[in-house]
Predict the 3D structure of the following.
Amino acid sequence: MLNVGKIEEGFVLDHIKAGKSLSIYEHLQLDKLDCTVAIIKNARSGKMGKKDILKVECDIDMLDLDVLAFIDHSITVNVIKNGEIVEKKELVLPKQIKNVIKCRNPRCITSIEQGLPHVFVLSDEKKEIYRCKYCEEKYSES
């Protein structure tokens, strides 16, 4: 049985879809922070079967909740103080995300202007559809 100790100050990202924790680690740029990070992959879960968990010992303000919500807004964010959960944050889809995904339209201005940020706007909240701010190209994961 694997045992990862509790953290005193920081946050725990729980209910991550199995196999997604490394992607979240990269998108949140946790490698650039000077703090302890534990990645637990394929943990057993009664609700999900398997899940990933990220434990991070640093201030919650270091976390970009918009990026996290874009990746998966069903993730549970537990804020830890003095070794106890003091708050659970609900994630909501951000209205706009910047430089998380890139527009795939070769005629989009972002393909020509290298310094221009890649900005996507939430166009359909129910279907979770984002479109490029400049060319209206729909974002798709594939």
Q: What stands out?
A: The longest strand covers residues 36-45. Strands lie at 10-17, 36-45, 49-57, 76-81, 84-89, 96-98, 119-124, 129-132.
